[in-house]
Amino acid sequence: MVVGHYKAENFDHNKNTFLPNPDISVLVTVDEVFDNDHRVVNTKGSATGKFTFSAADAGDHRICFLPSVPGGGGWLSGGQTVDGMRMTLDLAIGETSQIESTDKGKILDIVSKVKDLNGRLQDIRREQVFQRTMASSALLIAGIATIEYYLPLTPLTPHEELAISYIRRELAQMVHMYT
């Protein structure tokens, strides 16, 4: 794994020094020369940035930086040559674990946020199940009350008594299941 940090600065002729310019954008490309110039990175970023790539096979890589300033084309700004541009590059080449150890805090923070979101999602799901259960219970209770209301005032036959007691038992079991 290769991790590169870069910084582009303009030369200020009046102050006779290189200064950061937030208007600069930088196009970073990385090509595997040994693999018929296969492009593995093609990203545009600000004047200060980071890029990473994995070198699957050993061989030469070409890393190119193309800084540009708004209103100009690359090294030209408004038709006039920029006094100068300085590119600072810091490359870390090595094992993934060594390079990623600097980003461990960020990763742990993201993991914590994902766990928190998963917990909230579980709470929402539990609340939805509870609401469905309560709605089902209310419907069952309403059904029992409706059956009781519509029972005739005349004496029932033994067959009707048996059917109504069976329905009451089934409804009571359903209410018990959902409460």
**Strand count, sense and closure of the main sheet?**
4 strands, antiparallel
Q: Could you say which overall geometry the principal axes of the C-alpha atoms support?
A: rod-shaped
Radius of gyration: 36 Å
The quaternary state of the protein chains shown equals single chain
Cα separation of the termini: 57 Å
User: Fraction of residues in helices?
Assistant: 40-55%
Q: List the uncertain runs.
A: 73-80
- Beta-strand fraction estimate: 25-35%
Number of strands: 9
Number of helices: 3
Mean pLDDT across residues: 77
Order of helices and strands: EEEEEEEEEHHH
**SS-based structural class?**
alpha+beta
How would you characterize this protein structure?
This protein is of the alpha+beta class. Helices cover 41% and strands 33% of the residues. The chain is built from three helices and nine strands. The protein has helices spanning 96-100, 104-150, 158-178, and strands at 2-12, 17-20, 25-32, 38-46, 48-53, 61-68, 76-77, 80-81, 85-93. The strands form three sheets. Strands 1, 2, 5 and 9 form a four-stranded antiparallel sheet that branches. A hairpin with a 2-residue loop joins strand 7 and strand 8. Helix 2 (104-150) runs antiparallel to helix 3. The longest helix has 47 residues, at 104-150. The radius of gyration is 36 Å and the shape is rod-shaped. The relative contact order is 0.13. Mean pLDDT is 77; it is low at 73-80.
